[in-house]
Amino acid sequence: INSPNDWLIERINAHKPFFNLRWCDGEHILIFRVQPEGYMMSDNTQVFHAQGDALRALLGDMYQVGPSKLLLGFTGEEERNELDRRFASLLKDLDMEDFNWCHPHYLLEGILDGSTIRLIDALRIQEKCVLVTNEKLKEARHCLGAKHVPAPDHDSWLARDQVYQDCKGLASQGCTFVWCAGGGVKPTAWKLFQEYPQSSHIDGGHLF
Predict the structure, then answer these.
(1) Cα-flanking dihedrals φ and ψ of residue 89, to 5°?
(2) What is the average pLDDT score of the chain?
(3) Could you tell me if 65 and 21 are in contact, meaning their C-beta atoms sit under 8 angstroms apart?
(4) What is the pTM of this model?
Protein backbone atom coordinates (compact mmCIF):
# COMPACT_ATOMS: atom_id res chain seq x y z
CA ILE A 1 0.00 0.00 0.00
CA ASN A 2 1.60 3.27 -1.12
CA SER A 3 -0.59 5.56 0.97
CA PRO A 4 -1.64 3.68 4.14
CA ASN A 5 -3.19 6.73 5.82
CA ASP A 6 -5.42 7.31 2.81
CA TRP A 7 -6.39 3.61 2.86
CA LEU A 8 -7.47 3.99 6.49
CA ILE A 9 -9.30 7.29 5.84
CA GLU A 10 -11.23 5.75 2.97
CA ARG A 11 -12.42 2.88 5.14
CA ILE A 12 -13.29 5.17 8.07
CA ASN A 13 -15.35 7.45 5.82
CA ALA A 14 -17.08 4.46 4.21
CA HIS A 15 -17.80 2.86 7.62
CA LYS A 16 -15.92 -0.28 6.59
CA PRO A 17 -14.25 -2.04 9.56
CA PHE A 18 -10.52 -2.77 9.36
CA PHE A 19 -7.58 -3.98 11.41
CA ASN A 20 -4.09 -2.41 11.34
CA LEU A 21 -1.07 -3.91 13.07
CA ARG A 22 2.66 -3.19 12.84
CA TRP A 23 5.30 -5.94 12.99
CA CYS A 24 8.60 -4.54 14.30
CA ASP A 25 11.72 -5.82 16.09
CA GLY A 26 9.92 -6.25 19.41
CA GLU A 27 7.33 -8.56 17.87
CA HIS A 28 10.02 -10.53 16.02
CA ILE A 29 12.03 -11.02 19.23
CA LEU A 30 8.93 -12.44 20.88
CA ILE A 31 7.77 -14.61 17.99
CA PHE A 32 11.16 -16.27 17.54
CA ARG A 33 11.97 -16.44 21.28
CA VAL A 34 15.28 -14.65 20.78
CA GLN A 35 15.49 -13.76 24.47
CA PRO A 36 14.68 -15.80 27.60
CA GLU A 37 11.49 -15.44 29.62
CA GLY A 38 11.64 -12.32 31.81
CA TYR A 39 14.38 -10.62 29.77
CA MET A 40 14.08 -6.83 30.03
CA MET A 41 13.95 -5.20 26.60
CA SER A 42 15.08 -1.68 25.71
CA ASP A 43 11.61 -0.21 26.32
CA ASN A 44 11.55 -1.61 29.88
CA THR A 45 9.06 -4.35 29.04
CA GLN A 46 9.63 -7.97 29.93
CA VAL A 47 9.74 -10.86 27.49
CA PHE A 48 6.77 -13.20 27.89
CA HIS A 49 6.95 -16.28 25.70
CA ALA A 50 3.17 -16.70 25.88
CA GLN A 51 2.84 -13.26 24.30
CA GLY A 52 5.12 -14.30 21.44
CA ASP A 53 3.09 -17.47 20.96
CA ALA A 54 -0.10 -15.39 20.81
CA LEU A 55 1.44 -13.10 18.19
CA ARG A 56 2.51 -16.04 16.08
CA ALA A 57 -0.96 -17.60 16.30
CA LEU A 58 -2.39 -14.24 15.31
CA LEU A 59 -0.60 -14.47 11.96
CA GLY A 60 -2.35 -17.74 11.22
CA ASP A 61 -5.68 -16.19 12.12
CA MET A 62 -4.97 -13.30 9.78
CA TYR A 63 -4.38 -15.70 6.91
CA GLN A 64 -7.84 -17.16 7.50
CA VAL A 65 -9.43 -13.69 7.50
CA GLY A 66 -7.71 -12.68 4.27
CA PRO A 67 -6.21 -9.36 3.20
CA SER A 68 -9.21 -7.18 2.36
CA LYS A 69 -9.78 -5.79 5.88
CA LEU A 70 -6.13 -5.80 6.99
CA LEU A 71 -3.33 -3.24 6.78
CA LEU A 72 -0.06 -4.61 8.13
CA GLY A 73 3.21 -2.78 8.77
CA PHE A 74 6.62 -4.34 8.09
CA THR A 75 10.06 -2.97 7.24
CA GLY A 76 10.89 -2.55 3.54
CA GLU A 77 13.17 -5.16 1.96
CA GLU A 78 16.15 -2.83 1.63
CA GLU A 79 16.08 -2.04 5.39
CA ARG A 80 15.75 -5.54 6.78
CA ASN A 81 18.00 -7.07 9.43
CA GLU A 82 18.36 -10.78 10.26
CA LEU A 83 15.16 -10.90 12.33
CA ASP A 84 13.25 -9.10 9.58
CA ARG A 85 14.44 -11.68 7.06
CA ARG A 86 13.30 -14.51 9.33
CA PHE A 87 9.90 -12.86 9.58
CA ALA A 88 9.75 -12.40 5.79
CA SER A 89 10.46 -16.11 5.40
CA LEU A 90 7.62 -16.90 7.82
CA LEU A 91 5.25 -14.71 5.78
CA LYS A 92 6.26 -16.58 2.64
CA ASP A 93 5.55 -19.92 4.34
CA LEU A 94 2.12 -18.60 5.39
CA ASP A 95 1.42 -17.31 1.86
CA MET A 96 0.89 -13.78 3.21
CA GLU A 97 3.32 -11.85 1.01
CA ASP A 98 0.48 -10.39 -1.08
CA PHE A 99 -1.46 -8.95 1.88
CA ASN A 100 -1.75 -5.17 2.29
CA TRP A 101 1.72 -4.29 3.61
CA CYS A 102 3.11 -0.83 4.36
CA HIS A 103 6.08 0.66 6.18
CA PRO A 104 5.60 0.28 9.96
CA HIS A 105 6.37 3.95 10.61
CA TYR A 106 3.76 5.31 8.21
CA LEU A 107 2.04 7.37 10.92
CA LEU A 108 5.24 9.25 11.74
CA GLU A 109 6.11 9.67 8.06
CA GLY A 110 2.57 10.92 7.43
CA ILE A 111 3.17 13.87 9.74
CA LEU A 112 5.51 15.25 7.09
CA ASP A 113 3.10 14.93 4.16
CA GLY A 114 -0.03 15.77 6.15
CA SER A 115 -1.74 12.40 5.73
CA THR A 116 -1.57 11.55 9.44
CA ILE A 117 -3.29 14.86 10.26
CA ARG A 118 -6.02 13.97 7.77
CA LEU A 119 -6.38 10.60 9.48
CA ILE A 120 -6.73 12.24 12.90
CA ASP A 121 -9.34 14.61 11.45
CA ALA A 122 -11.29 11.65 10.02
CA LEU A 123 -11.24 9.89 13.39
CA ARG A 124 -12.43 13.01 15.19
CA ILE A 125 -15.27 13.61 12.72
CA GLN A 126 -16.38 9.99 13.08
CA GLU A 127 -16.99 10.59 16.82
CA LYS A 128 -16.53 6.89 17.63
CA CYS A 129 -12.83 6.81 18.50
CA VAL A 130 -11.23 5.16 21.54
CA LEU A 131 -7.63 5.78 22.60
CA VAL A 132 -6.01 2.95 24.57
CA THR A 133 -2.90 4.25 26.31
CA ASN A 134 -1.29 4.92 29.67
CA GLU A 135 -2.33 7.75 31.96
CA LYS A 136 0.60 9.94 30.86
CA LEU A 137 -0.71 10.09 27.30
CA LYS A 138 -4.45 10.17 27.93
CA GLU A 139 -4.74 13.89 27.11
CA ALA A 140 -4.02 12.95 23.48
CA ARG A 141 -7.64 11.79 23.39
CA HIS A 142 -8.72 15.38 22.90
CA CYS A 143 -7.16 15.70 19.44
CA LEU A 144 -8.99 12.53 18.41
CA GLY A 145 -12.27 13.41 20.11
CA ALA A 146 -11.85 10.00 21.72
CA LYS A 147 -12.83 8.12 24.82
CA HIS A 148 -9.89 6.85 26.87
CA VAL A 149 -9.24 3.30 28.06
CA PRO A 150 -6.26 3.04 30.46
CA ALA A 151 -3.36 0.65 30.02
CA PRO A 152 -0.15 0.30 32.06
CA ASP A 153 3.11 2.04 31.16
CA HIS A 154 4.92 -1.28 30.78
CA ASP A 155 4.13 -4.99 30.45
CA SER A 156 0.63 -4.43 29.11
CA TRP A 157 0.50 -8.18 28.39
CA LEU A 158 -0.21 -8.69 32.10
CA ALA A 159 -3.21 -6.34 31.90
CA ARG A 160 -4.67 -7.82 28.71
CA ASP A 161 -7.76 -9.32 30.37
CA GLN A 162 -8.69 -6.05 32.09
CA VAL A 163 -8.11 -4.05 28.90
CA TYR A 164 -10.33 -6.49 27.01
CA GLN A 165 -13.11 -6.09 29.57
CA ASP A 166 -12.83 -2.30 29.38
CA CYS A 167 -12.97 -2.31 25.58
CA LYS A 168 -15.50 -4.97 24.61
CA GLY A 169 -18.59 -2.81 25.16
CA LEU A 170 -17.14 -0.07 22.99
CA ALA A 171 -16.11 -2.61 20.35
CA SER A 172 -19.68 -3.88 20.21
CA GLN A 173 -20.73 -0.32 19.31
CA GLY A 174 -18.45 -0.32 16.27
CA CYS A 175 -15.85 2.07 17.67
CA THR A 176 -12.43 2.64 16.13
CA PHE A 177 -9.59 1.96 18.56
CA VAL A 178 -6.18 3.64 18.43
CA TRP A 179 -3.77 1.43 20.36
CA CYS A 180 -0.74 3.15 21.92
CA ALA A 181 -0.24 0.69 24.76
CA GLY A 182 2.68 -1.52 23.74
CA GLY A 183 2.86 -4.87 22.04
CA GLY A 184 1.34 -6.68 25.00
CA VAL A 185 -2.20 -5.80 23.95
CA LYS A 186 -1.85 -6.42 20.21
CA PRO A 187 -3.40 -9.89 20.65
CA THR A 188 -6.18 -8.22 22.67
CA ALA A 189 -6.93 -5.86 19.80
CA TRP A 190 -7.13 -8.83 17.45
CA LYS A 191 -9.41 -10.73 19.83
CA LEU A 192 -11.77 -7.76 19.91
CA PHE A 193 -11.77 -7.51 16.11
CA GLN A 194 -12.59 -11.21 15.78
CA GLU A 195 -15.39 -11.10 18.33
CA TYR A 196 -16.73 -7.69 17.28
CA PRO A 197 -16.06 -7.42 13.52
CA GLN A 198 -17.94 -4.12 13.46
CA SER A 199 -15.00 -2.54 15.34
CA SER A 200 -11.81 -1.14 13.78
CA HIS A 201 -8.27 -0.98 15.13
CA ILE A 202 -5.20 1.17 14.44
CA ASP A 203 -1.78 0.29 15.84
CA GLY A 204 -0.77 3.81 16.89
CA GLY A 205 2.67 2.88 18.20
CA HIS A 206 4.59 5.97 19.30
CA LEU A 207 2.34 8.49 17.56
CA PHE A 208 1.68 10.31 20.86
Answers:
(1) -65, -40
(2) 95
(3) no
(4) 0.96
